Amino acid sequence: NPSLSLFQDPHYSYHVPNTPISLILIRVHQHPIERAALFRTIFNTQQALRRQLSKEGNRWLDVDDDPYQVDDKRSGKCMIGMKSVHPGGNDGERLTYKDVLDVMQGLWDVLYLGRNGYNTIYQINNGTVLVGHGKIMVGNV
């Protein structure tokens, strides 16, 4: 259960079920993200990514999408951003659109369902490879 131990230690690790993605999350301060804004930002981004993946398939993030940034258009009270370790590189140290969807699921599980919706920075691993890092904050892009 992600809500039991998050942020009691400086780093919290979470493996997104049924994916190769794991996150290391660090709460940067106690400022809470409005729960409705957190819901809308993650949910709407997941929906858009699912549509894109079903239409175009999975691929590396486009240069224009790395860093990948979204926010709650209604309130401006939640911003999520993530960036590949090597944007535009030829190696595996970069994010795909499926990775971003998997990260969104991890943020949903830990921050929304786990009721840990605070400003957080995170590292993204695909298996044992560090592929990116990101943040979720109060504010907008």
Describe the structure.
- It contains three helices and six strands; from the N terminus they run H-E-E-H-E-E-H-E-E.
- It is globular and about 40 Å long.
- It has 141 residues and is of the alpha+beta class.
- Helix 2 packs antiparallel against helix 3.
- The protein starts with a helix and ends with a strand.
Walk me through the topology.
Elements: H1 2-5, E1 12-15, E2 21-32, H2 35-56, E3 68-71, E4 79-84, H3 97-113, E5 118-126, E6 129-137
Antiparallel strand pairs: 1-2, 2-5, 3-4, 4-6, 5-6
Characterize this entry briefly:
This protein has 3 helices and 6 strands; from the N terminus they run H-E-E-H-E-E-H-E-E.
